[in-house]
Amino acid sequence: MEPYIITHSGIEFDLSNPSPELVKIEDIAHALSQLCRFTGHTSCFYSVAAHSIQVSNLVPPEHALEALLHDAAEAYVGDVSSPLKAMLPEYRMIEFKVDQAIRQRFGLPAKLTPCIKQADLRRLATEKWHLMPECGPWDILNGIERAPTWCMTLGDHDFHKRQFLTHFHSLQAKALT
């Protein structure tokens, strides 16, 4: 089996040697809008695209695009739960290479900006609270304060895809001014 996937737009995306030129925001938005957070074990559907928009809204404006794309590699490699991901070093290397291609494509720093990780954890705490209320405490969230507001946009994947693309293009336009 060849190490590539066919994206929504029909691109053969090589997972062993990801090319920044083949990264398309439309493919990212499409895939993330159909991936459910927490590998689908939530009280209702909540897409990775919606999560990404919320993380983007929690960081200073100069980091908003990077925050929007912080989980973009999942569009190409899927959303693997953190406990499973920790057991799969080869998967983590592939995800890293894809992330680097995405970062290069959109002119993002090579390493994740720390405030984005903090915003991601705040959003995780908020989502866990609202989407998995029966779940016990998670060590990773010790000392993490939930985001100040709960905003969950219900809608089908087309709606989440449009929201993601609109947010992306808005951030791109602001960067040009």
Quick summary:
The chain has 177 residues and is mainly alpha-helical.
Give descriptors for this structure:
Hypothetical protein af1432, two-stranded antiparallel sheet, mainly alpha, 177 residues
What does this protein structure show overall?
This protein is mainly α. The chain has eight helices and two strands, in the order ββαααααααα. A hairpin with a 5-residue loop joins strand 1 (4-6) and strand 2. The protein is globular and about 40 Å long.
Distance between the termini: 46 Å
The succession of helices and strands, N to C, reads: EEHHHHHHHH
Number of structural domains = 1
Global structural class: mainly alpha
Please report the number of helical segments. Answer: 8
SSE layout and pairings?
Layout: E1 4-6, E2 12-14, H1 25-34, H2 48-58, H3 64-68, H4 74-77, H5 82-85, H6 89-105, H7 114-131, H8 157-176
Helix pairs in contact: 1-8, 2-7, 2-8
